[in-house]
Amino acid sequence: MSGADTYIMLMSSLPDLGGFLEAESPPINRLQIEERLAMLSPEDRAEIDAVTSVLSWDRIRAEDEDATVLANAERVSAALRSETLRHFVRDRLEIRTIIAALRRRHAGEEAPAPDTRWGFGRFKETIRANWADPSFGVGRAFPWIAPAREKLESGDTAGFERLALKAVWDTIGRHADNHAFDLEAVAIYLLRWSVVDSWAQYDTAAATARFSRLLDEAFADITPTFEAAS
Q1: What is the arithmetic mean of pLDDT over 141-146?
Q2: Beta strands in the chain (DSSP E)
Q3: Which one in 28, 96, 134, 225 has a CA-CA gap of 20 to 30 Å to 198?
Q4: Taking the CA of residue 23 as centre, how many other CA atoms within 13 Å lie in the half-sphere pointing to its CB?
Q5: Reported pTM
Q6: Residue 7 in 3-state DSSP?
Q7: CB 130, CB 136: distance < 8 Å
Q8: CA 27 to CA 59: how far, in whole Å?
Q9: How many H helices and E strands in the chain?
Q10: How far apart are CA 151 and CA 103, in angstroms?
Q11: In a 10 Å sphere around its CB, with 0-12 CB exposed, 13-18 middle and 19+ buried, how is residue 60 labelled?
């Protein structure tokens, strides 16, 4: 089977993910995806795994320092054969750099020191130098920063998460029209799947936390009644 035939068969076997967060959960699970990825050649699978190793935070140990994570991202990105996949890595990690900057500033932290390895991509020095600017001096390139900052400052963590995922989704989509049945198309699907899966996990966790909080409040309301009755 030729490489082109493999991509056609693989992509045709993957269910449509729909538009941004149209589905409450992915229409296919990770195990089913893994079964389909077995169609890829060892070289292509290694390329996909390399991208995943950089873009999936669950692959990064909590004890890893920023410098270690960034060094690994730079090493993996430089070794990728596909220029489009290198752009995926760069664009995704630039978004994460901005999200990290928003959270750090919101927590009252100062701008990273000039000699600190803290971010990834083309804008990290601009962000550091414009720490006091509401949009870090890059609002024109990333118009979602302003509404994301507002969500963060108002305590709307779900809204903040959704805006961040939308930024990732839109960035991926800029490449989608040029790739239908190739390695890049597989990567695009996996990255979009990860967005849907991340939101499904976040939404479930948020709903569980809300339910637990409501239970706590309900029991707090009735506890005095029991004490009075006793």
Answers
A1: 97
A2: none
A3: 134
A4: 17
A5: 0.83
A6: helix
A7: yes
A8: 23
A9: 9, 0
A10: 11
A11: middle
